[in-house]
Amino acid sequence: MLGLVPTRQRLIRRAEPGDAGAIGSIYDEAIATRVATFAAGPHDQAERMAWLAARGDRAPVWVLDASGDVIAWAALAPFSHREWYDGVAEYTVYVSAGVQGTGAGGQMLDHLIDTAPGLGYWKLVGMILEGNAAGLALARGRGFREVGTHHAHGHVDGAWRDVTVVELHLEKSR
Ligand SMILES: CC(C)(COP(=O)(O)OP(=O)(O)OC[C@H]1O[C@@H](n2cnc3c(N)ncnc32)[C@H](O)[C@@H]1OP(=O)(O)O)[C@@H](O)C(=O)NCCC(=O)NCCS
Question: Given 3-state DSSP classes, what are the helix, strand and coil percentages for the chain, each rounded to the nearest 5?
């Protein structure tokens, strides 16, 4: 069945409206680190539910369900509204702080890589904020190449922050 990939007790499934709270909590943990996203938080439940409901077919969200607990989530979204970039998706992976370093992020990114071609994507792009060693290691470990670094791309907590762009072509040999 689409979106169901059993891995021991950890099951990847499509996010449902009832997952919005857990997704938001994991996202808020990441916001607090200041190296995962430029977003400010915390987000309220209604906002997170609206975000989830607004995702189209080509912007799916998956969760990693560990015996009923959502411990990670991942998403794809079109890179651009321009049709000639139709095959390019931006990915995001967020793992609950308590289970980071146990393979959940890798499992989710592998799932995105496996699923993206079926959604018409030929490339995944990631935006890794300065100081996010885990985010960069995750991408590198899956064969992403570093495109380059946007300098002073964001302004957070009174400081300019760089963003490194990574990409993985899903069709061309790398
Ligand atoms: C980045 C993140 C998703 C990684 O998930 P994770 O479950 O902790 O990672 P895994 O256990 O699957 O490990 C994946 C790889 O990252 C490496 N890694 C994990 N944590 C690391 C750290 N703190 N420093 C350096 N490398 C790290 C692992 O060694 C592993 O390498 P390998 O693939 O070469 O074996 C997680 O730290 C997270 O949710 N961070 C906040 C959100 C974020 O920054 N997302 C990335 C941008 S979209």
Answer: 35, 35, 30
